[in-house]
Amino acid sequence: MKNPSNRTLILWWLLAALIGLLTGCPTSSEWDRQWEQVHANISRGQFQEAKDLLHRLLPSVRKQGPTDERYALVIFQLGEVARLEGQVSEAEAYYWEALPLLAQSLGSEHLRMADPLAALASLYQQKNQLEMARPLLKRALAIREKSWGPSDPQLLSTLQTYHALLMAGDHPEEATEIASRIDRILKLSS
Question: What is the CATH number of the domain that holds 21?
Fold first, then answer.
C-alpha cells in the first residue's frame, strides 16, 4: 500500500493544477512550478528548502486574502513540514490556522477540510489527548464519507485510525460499529 503522506502530496499537487486550469491560469504558471518544487523538496527530505520556498510564497498568497485557496494550502503545507521535522506544536498551530482559511476559500464541507482535521487528530493522538483527537477525526471521516460515499475503499485508512482511537479511548460500542464497516468495505473491495 502506498504511503498516505505521498498520496496526499500527489493529491495536493493535482488539485493545485486543477485549480490553475479552472481559474484560467496556465498549468506552467510560476505558482505551479514553485508548488511542484515544494513537493519535490519534501519528497527528497529537504524540509528546510521546502519551508523556505513556502515562506517566499506566503506574502503573495496572503495578499490575495483568506478566500484564496492557495493561502490555506501554503499554511497547511507549512504544518506538514513542521510535522515531518518533529515540531509538533508548530504543526498544530499551522493546522489550526489552515482550517478557517480552507472553510473560507472552499467551504466547511469541502474534502480538503478533512486533511488538517485528520492531521490535528493524529497529533493529539500522539500526545495521548484522545478526547481532543476523537471529534476531529470523526469530522474528517464525515467529510470524506460525504465526498467519497460511505463504502468507498479510500475511507479504510481513516476508519482504521478512528477504530484504534475509539478502542484506546474506551468507546467499545462505536469501535465495534466501525470495525463492522471496515469489514464490509474490505469484502466489497475484494
Answer: 1.25.40
Helices (H), 85-113: 88-106
Domain termination site, one of 47, 72, 107: 107
How buried is 58 (Cβ within 10 angstroms: 0-12 exposed, 13-18 middle, 19+ buried)?
middle
Q: Which residues contact 87 (CB under 8 A, 6 or more apart)?
A: none
If you average pLDDT over residues 135-164, what whole number do you get? 96
Q: Of 155, 129, 160, 156, give the one whose Cα is nearest residue 143.
A: 155
Q: What is the pLDDT of residue 24?
A: 39
Q: Which domain holds residue 81?
A: 1-107
pLDDT at res. 18 = 54
Other CB atoms within 10 A of residue 154 CB:
14
Contact between 138 and 162 under an 8 Å Cβ cutoff? The reply is yes
CATH of the domain at 160: 1.25.40.10
- What tens digit of pLDDT does each residue of 56-86 get? 999 989 998 889 999 999 999 999 999 999 9
| Res 1 pLDDT > 50 | no
Cβ neighbours around 99 below 10 Å, total: 19
Last residue of a domain, one of 70, 89, 107: 107
DSSP, collapsed to helix, strand or coil, labels residue 136 as: helix
Nearest C-alpha neighbor of 3 from the set 46, 42, 52, 54: 42
